C-alpha cells in the first residue's frame, strides 16, 4: 500500500483563487490528501464550501479556529505536509514567505513547515507587481531556500493589461506537484 501524499494547498487573495478549486479537485482525484488553507483575502474572492466539498476535508482559514485535539491546526498541517503548494500566490504572500512573516494560518504553516516537505509556488498577480524588484528579490530568496516556482504565464490579466502574471494552467500545476511528490 502506498503512502498517502499530503498536500497543503494555500489559496491567497487573487482573482485566480477560483481556479484553485479545480486544482484541489485534480489533486484529490490523484489520491492526494488535500488540506486547503485560505488567507483572509482569499475569502473575499471565493468561499471555502467548494474546497471543502472537493477535497473532502475541512478548510482552515483562521489561525485561531478551534480544532479537535490539542495541537493547533497550522502546526499539525505543517508537520504532516509532504508538499506546500501555494496557488495562486500573491506578491504579498511571496513577500511574507521570503521574510518569514507569520500573521495568518498559511504564513504560519510556511514558517513551521517540516524540513522534509517541498514547496511549490504558482504566482498570479498584475505584471507590474510580478516584475517589481522587490517581488523578484523575494522570489530569488525563496529559490535559494529550495522553493520551486511554476509560472506565471503571459496573457490578458484581470486588471485589463496584457502581460505576465496569469496563473499557470492548473493541470500543469497539478502535474508539477505530483512530480515533486515522487
Mind explaining what this structure looks like?
- The chain is an alpha/beta fold and 182 residues long.
- The chain has a single domain (5-181), classed as Rossmann fold (3-Layer(aba) Sandwich).
- The chain is built from eight helices and seven strands, in the order βαβααβααβααβββα.
- The strands form two sheets. It has a five-stranded parallel β-sheet with strand order 2-1-3-4-5, with helices on both faces.
- A hairpin with a 5-residue loop joins β6 and β7 (162-166).
- 43% of the residues are buried.
CATH topology: Rossmann fold
How many structural domains in the coordinates? 1
Classify the beta-strand content into a percent band: 15-25%
By secondary-structure content and strand pairing, the structural class works out as alpha/beta
User: How many H/I helical runs?
Assistant: 8
Q: Pick out the low-confidence regions.
A: none
Question: Largest sheet, if any?
Answer: 5 strands, parallel
Percent helix range: 25-40%
The CATH superfamily is identified as: Flavin prenyltransferase-like
What's the Cα radius of gyration? 15 Å
CATH architecture, by name, is 3-Layer(aba) Sandwich
What oligomeric state do the depicted chains represent?
A: single chain
What form results from the Cα inertia axes? Answer: globular
Mean pLDDT: 94
Strand ordering within the main sheet: 2-1-3-4-5
SSE pattern, N- to C-terminal: EHEHHEHHEHHEEEH
Measured distance between first and last alpha carbons: 15 Å
